[in-house]
């Protein structure tokens, strides 16, 4: 059996993965997960669309299965994500008369967060309260002057939807760590926006504890120096940081996949990049206190299917759950640290 990465990284960098309830129902896959990972996050099961069945109605079955599995093995659980523009509980936005008023949407969101965070109170140690509220990567995208995405939340409630969400989460579980989570979090514009957000929230007496760096990387993007700068800049705000969704694609663009098969050279380059990134995180372990990969193995990566099929083989284990060169590189980095 390949050595456990969670054990090798140990307390220096708590290591976990995004999982699904279906994976845990398969005994062989469940055993693999329990061996390799020390922290879990639900890839989809704790999103609004998965949990919400209407006002005050919930389906917690898959999310509870993941939390129970983790707790039986003393693995901390991250909660992902309370408010996002994708996979929202779309019933919240309308009623019989059409689009709801601001007051109604605020009340529905507050109730949702109170119920969900309350349900998992004491069992989820950190929440991604708001996911991907800013965006600077698509020039044509609808954003406000601050770069805030014109999601339905932002449009109906205004930028205060973020403060409302953090307040509600803090009230529902005073002990859970509250994170803002985003992709491209090394982009200086996004770093500045996140720092501004944190300062505004704190000036209003709203608690925010950390920033989640998604880190869906390509083979050469982003530059590690930019990642290092972002971590240092955010640490200066007194924030905890987690790398929440790491994967390293074999390609570099979001459109079209030139690479259709994994060659030994590509897998080696990917392995080196994984090692460089893990080394960077280990060198900043006073600032970054968790690393999670977004999927347990290449067979289960989101990139295979969403938003369009892509071949990227972006994870540490292959389609048969066997270790890839990237696994060996991370293991070596962990052991050398
Ligand atoms: O489960 C349904 C199935 O019943 C249905 O037949 C099928 C048809 O579309 O869809 C299935 O749901 C899909 C779900 O993944 C489970 O596979 C959704 O359509 C699909 O949209 C969803 O994609 C997820 C994606 O977020 C979309 O929101 C990915 O699994 C998930 O990995 C991805 O995760 C996000 C993070 O939450 C935030 N950061 C980026 C990251 C990657 O996109």
Automatic annotation (TrEMBL):
Protein origin, superkingdom: Bacteria
Top class in the EC scheme: hydrolase
Keywords attached to this entry: Carbohydrate metabolism, Glycosidase, Hydrolase, Polysaccharide degradation, Signal, Xylan degradation
E.C. no: 3.2.1.8
Catalytic activity: Endohydrolysis of (1->4)-beta-D-xylosidic linkages in xylans
InterPro entries for the chain: GH (IPR017853), GH10 (IPR044846), GH10_dom (IPR001000)
The GH10 domain, residue ranges: 1-333
Family: Belongs to the glycosyl hydrolase 10 (cellulase F) family.
Protein name: Beta-xylanase
The species this protein was found in: Roseateles violae
């Amino acid at each position: 059996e390949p050595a456990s990465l969670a054990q090798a990284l140990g307390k220096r960098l708590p290591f976990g993965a995004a999982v699904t309830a279906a994976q845990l129902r398969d005994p062989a896959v469940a055993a693999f997960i329990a061996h390799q990972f020390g922290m879990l996050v639900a890839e989809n099961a704790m999103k609004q669309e998965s949990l919400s069945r209407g006002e005050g109605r919930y389906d917690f079955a898959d999310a509870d299965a993941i939390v129970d599995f983790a707790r039986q093995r003393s693995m901390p659980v991250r909660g992902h994500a309370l408010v996002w523009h994708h996979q929202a509980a779309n019933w919240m936005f309308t009623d019989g008369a059409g689009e709801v008023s601001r007051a109604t949407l605020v009340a529905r969101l507050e109730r949702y967060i109170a119920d969900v965070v309350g349900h998992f109170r004491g069992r989820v140690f950190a929440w991604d309260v708001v996911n991907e509220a800013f965006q600077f990567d698509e020039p044509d995208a609808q954003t406000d002057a601050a770069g805030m995405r014109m999601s339905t939340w932002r449009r109906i409630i205004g930028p205060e939807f973020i403060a409302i969400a953090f307040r509600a989460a803090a009230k529902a579980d005073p002990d859970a760590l509250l994170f803002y989570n985003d992709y491209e979090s090394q982009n200086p514009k996004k770093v500045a926006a996140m720092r501004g957000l944190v300062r505004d929230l704190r000036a209003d007496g709203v608690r925010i504890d950390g920033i989640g760096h998604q880190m869906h990387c390509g083979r050469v993007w982003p530059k590690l120096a930019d990642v290092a700068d972002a971590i240092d800049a955010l640490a200066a705000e007194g924030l905890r940081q987690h790398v929440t969704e790491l994967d390293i694609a074999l390609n570099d663009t979001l459109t079209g996949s030139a690479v259709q098969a994994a060659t030994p050279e590509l897998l080696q380059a990917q392995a080196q990049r994984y090692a460089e990134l893990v080394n960077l995180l280990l060198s900043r372990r006073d600032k970054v206190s968790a690393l999670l990969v977004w999927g347990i193995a290449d067979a289960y990566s989101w990139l295979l299917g969403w938003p369009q099929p892509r071949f990227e083989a972006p994870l540490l284990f292959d389609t048969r759950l066997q270790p890839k060169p990237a696994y060996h590189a991370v293991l070596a980095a962990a052991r050398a640290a």
